[in-house]
Inverse folding.
């Protein structure tokens, strides 16, 4: 079972050899830590993932959750795992010690979360949302609220949720109808129906703290009149917990994620639901916006994690499954049969999976690391630089990783063939589970609009320019290395296509033709992601090439034969060689398409919106 | 519910306005038919699909099939539907009247099958395979075998299967281990284990006729030593049916297609399994090859059908779901909310779904029609021309339609958002069901190798050249029409990219560098499919443009306003306008990418196969 979830060598390569997270330990904030403590916590995370979360992943899928007598029951096996998760202090992994957390950097937490999610996405709903809801209270709650809820939540004693969606209010959050009425004691009475609430009810914790978006009577329409409330399932009254009129009206039957309850919740059916305002009235959306980066990075990690597990399983299967002779001896009926990893079509699929998964991992950890660097920055300008990178890349992390993550699971099914379609193997569950990631936490269409409509324009385009500068520095360096020439050429070309498309969008926007950027936001996002991944892989290839050359030199490997001997003898050398291959493969197979993609983007074709609706819909 | 499965207007456009199937009625073979009889049978098919098959589609998914006491049970609701299907004579729709079939052209049968499959893919396993197995006996069986089995099968009294796959023999059919031993009476004793047998057992019929691939003792290894046997579940002895030692060892739990039993069958566990040789000894593979076109066209139709149903559902949802204001008034909280079909990102998705679904429909019916034209051809050369088109395009029909069909269902889930992920709506089932189509009947990787390794080379490349000539005639004609200029330009450019890549492959093959075409077979297949679909849509746009102009002229619609009025008033006009839009959209969004795709194909990059295996797999 071991090592079928995440390529730990690659995760550590990103953290230590690419990002040098260890340097954080030279700052006050992280002075307690060292590379060793980072690795220790990741090894512990791997053990928890492999020994506790993974073995119950299929249990969650098959048994699913049930609604019994108004209470949601998760599979029995989840209870023990939740205890382990709590006791390990994982909920507070990146929470400041000031709030009893472990205080690890976000980049390290990313690597741990990847492991947990790869092992069991369904299980991770409850701890993930609890930590997220806890963070809202930590950042915006009153001292009293912090005292009442935070420790209970970060310790996992109580669960947490985010209650945004309503039947008529999905992507359009501003349309929500839940109401809050001021009570004389400063609390609010909440009435409303919420749907699609992840872990909206379960029996893992005795209480669940809902963060509910609602409109206070008389508040402005749209997003400007939304407030956020703490609405516990059981509220504290005189030191004991009493029911707070939150009813679980139903749970959804879903394509995947069966281990995670998706609930419809009714608040205040009996007019006895009390909520506690977080922050100011009508500040719900700004608060949500500030939590969004973390949540969206989390969803990106889900796309990565399931891609990772799918790739690892497909890779293992391709080594073990013997089928047909090598294509070069196809016509010889006596030719030995080979494992399917030797078939070029399978290799091509595996290399694609490898390169995009490694690229996503680097992108996501990098963005987590930028958060860390912003937090320890020497001055505001430096902090702003890193924050800007985070803001710019977050929609890409969310959308590209969830879209491509799905595609990787699809390819794993394809590699396993008929077995891939059967529940006996886990890859079809990965596919079903990961599909939700392109939808929740803002659909990928919304992410694309966020990138094109907001992020590109921020600070007169400074975020984008800064990122392009960063990539320019890298390719300038790599251009000196003849061995990376072709990769650099393809990267630079793709990058200039992206820049051209960006300028085209900006011009269209300024000319009052915003339809074009809006219409092409999603394909633009795809291209943006390709270039970002290309950047990550080139960066990695630069490091791997240097280290591999050093190893060759030290070993005196100066012929192809000797080099190959070293690759066979040294896991590290093989890993570095594989890294370079990822960059080469990705640039030839994906970045090569950038010119076509940017051309489609800049075709100016508006058929999709110009066509009268009647031509699509016949009466 | 009506019209949520297949756009019947489009199906009839392809049959009557594009392919002019009516002309078949001028031949002896089809002289009994007319456009009216064609339409009548399709209307009847639509009724059966909508009234009987569709209402039980989700029942099949939720209840699934069970193995009880060695017998597979399908959902109760399937029995009534199966009766309707039998009684309607649908099993023999395209079977010659000489064998008590209805004798309809294959193109018409394609349209009927699309409806049935869109309504219920799981249900269609049994009738589909029964008809296919019946065809094998019709084409290759002895007179006695024909008498014994064909009527029973074409009437649906007995079921049928194809038993190829074994645990160690999937894509590599030649590796199969099932054995046949000659008996003195001319029968054979069969021993072997088969897996992934669609409808390998069920309780819809009293008997099931398995067509089993096995190796006769002493036969050569590999595919050259495979024979094909009729192995009925119950064999006729002295006029009564006796058990034939075929055991259902298990059924698979699958990602989708829950209504269709996927069985593991053990033949001859008690040494009492009798098989009857079909055709000559060791002729199993040639026979299979001759049935392959029909089977692969069938799988292509499955990809189309689920794409079609997914598109129709997404289109309906997008009209009904009101969410957010139009983007142009995004900042006005009072702006009216609009159905999501008005949002550009949703429109873009719908237009993509529309154009590829319509393109696939045209391609698949066209290939069916080529079969029909070959059957009524005046001479051998004409027949060979149409057969050549079929042979060339079959792998594209199978692979492109199943890959893109899956992608369309994915996009439908995306358009429905959270609802799309829930089983309350049918789109997630479409996605799960259609996934198998890229795997069975030869994985899409196998299809790509068939295209690149066999079909391109047949008759020194004549099949490919003929097809390119055909597309050249069309674009030559369309080039005269200034309104189609841009579509033609993009099509011609994509086509020349395809031709360049094809020549590149041929040169590599001749230079002994077959690795390149083998490695890039799948991306080549994608490009080939893009160009084929582009051809179909351009052809349709040519017709639609002419008809629309005629309508404008007749109505005196000479201003944009008057034209729009006509579109609103006339379903036909709106349909034709939509057709042109499909071609425009597809050429700008998909054909634009051809240059990048061909460049990647011709990069010559062999990273995926050159990289030592050790670099992928660490110990």
């Amino acid at each position: 079972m071991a090592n079928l979830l995440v390529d730990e060598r690659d995760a550590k390569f990103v953290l230590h050899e690419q990002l040098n997270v260890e340097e954080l330990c030279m700052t006050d904030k992280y002075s307690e830590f060292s590379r060793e403590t980072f690795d220790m916590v990741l090894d512990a995370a791997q053990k928890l993932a492999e020994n506790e979360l993974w073995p119950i992943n299929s249990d969650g899928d098959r048994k699913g959750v049930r609604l019994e007598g108004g209470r949601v029951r998760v599979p029995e096996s989840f209870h023990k795992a939740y205890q382990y998760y709590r006791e390990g202090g994982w909920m507070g992994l990146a929470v400041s010690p000031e709030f009893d957390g472990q205080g690890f950097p976000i980049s390290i937490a990313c690597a741990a979360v990847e492991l947990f999610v790869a092992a069991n996405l369904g299980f991770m709903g409850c701890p993930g949302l609890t930590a997220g809801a806890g963070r809202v209270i930590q950042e915006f709650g009153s001292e009293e609220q912090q005292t009442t809820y935070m420790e209970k939540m970060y310790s996992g004693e109580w669960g947490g949720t985010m209650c945004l969606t309503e039947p008529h209010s999905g992507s359009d959050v501003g349309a929500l109808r839940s109401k809050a009425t001021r009570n004389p004691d400063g609390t609010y009475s909440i009435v409303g129906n919420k749907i699609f609430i992840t872990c909206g009810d379960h029996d893992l914790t005795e209480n669940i703290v809902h963060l509910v978006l609602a409109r206070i009577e008389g508040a402005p329409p749209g997003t400007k009149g939304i407030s956020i409330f703490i609405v516990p399932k059981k509220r504290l009254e005189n030191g004991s917990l009493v029911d707070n009129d939150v009813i679980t009206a139903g749970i959804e039957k879903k394509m995947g994620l069966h281990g995670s309850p998706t609930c419809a919740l009714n608040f205040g059916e009996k007019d006895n639901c009390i909520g506690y305002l977080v922050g100011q009235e009508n500040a719900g959306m700004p608060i949500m916006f500030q939590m969004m980066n973390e949540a969206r990075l989390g969803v990106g990690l889900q796309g990565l994690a399931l891609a990772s597990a799918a790739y690892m399983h497909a890779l293992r299967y391709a080594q073990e499954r013997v089928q047909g002779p090598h294509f070069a001896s196809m016509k010889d009926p006596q030719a030995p049969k080979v494992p399917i990893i030797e078939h070029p079509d399978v290799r091509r699929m595996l290399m694609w999976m490898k390169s995009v998964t490694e690229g996503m991992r680097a992108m996501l950890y990098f963005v987590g690391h930028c958060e860390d660097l912003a937090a320890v920055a020497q001055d505001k300008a430096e902090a702003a630089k890193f924050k800007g990178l985070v803001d710019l890349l977050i929609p890409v992390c969310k959308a590209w990783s969830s879209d491509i993550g799905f595609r990787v699971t699809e390819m794993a099914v394809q590699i396993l063939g008929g077995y891939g379609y059967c529940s006996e193997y886990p890859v079809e569950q990965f596919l079903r589970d990961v599909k939700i990631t392109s939808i929740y936490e803002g659909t990928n269409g919304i992410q694309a609009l966020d990138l094109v409509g907001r992020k590109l324009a921020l600070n007169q385009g400074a975020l984008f320019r800064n990122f392009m500068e960063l990539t320019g520095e890298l390719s300038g360096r790599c251009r000196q290395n003849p061995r990376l020439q072709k990769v650099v050429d393809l990267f630079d070309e793709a990058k200039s296509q992206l820049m051209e498309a960006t300028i085209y969008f900006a011009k269209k926007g300024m000319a009052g033709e915003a339809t074009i950027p809006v219409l092409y936001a999603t394909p633009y996002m795809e291209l943006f992601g390709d270039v970002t991944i290309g950047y990550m892989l080139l960066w990695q290839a630069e490091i791997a090439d240097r280290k591999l050359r050093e190893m060759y030199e030290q070993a005196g490997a100066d012929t192809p034969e000797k080099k190959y001997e070293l690759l066979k003898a040294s896991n590290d050398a093989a890993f570095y060689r594989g890294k370079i291959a990822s960059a080469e493969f990705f640039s030839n197979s994906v970045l090569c398409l950038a010119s076509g993609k940017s051309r489609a983007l800049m075709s100016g074709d508006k058929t999709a919106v110009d066509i009268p609706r009647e031509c699509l819909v016949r009466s």
Q: What stands out?
A: Residues 211 and 530 of chain A are 36 Å apart (CA to CA). The mean pLDDT of chain A is 96. The two ends of chain A are 56 Å apart (CA to CA).
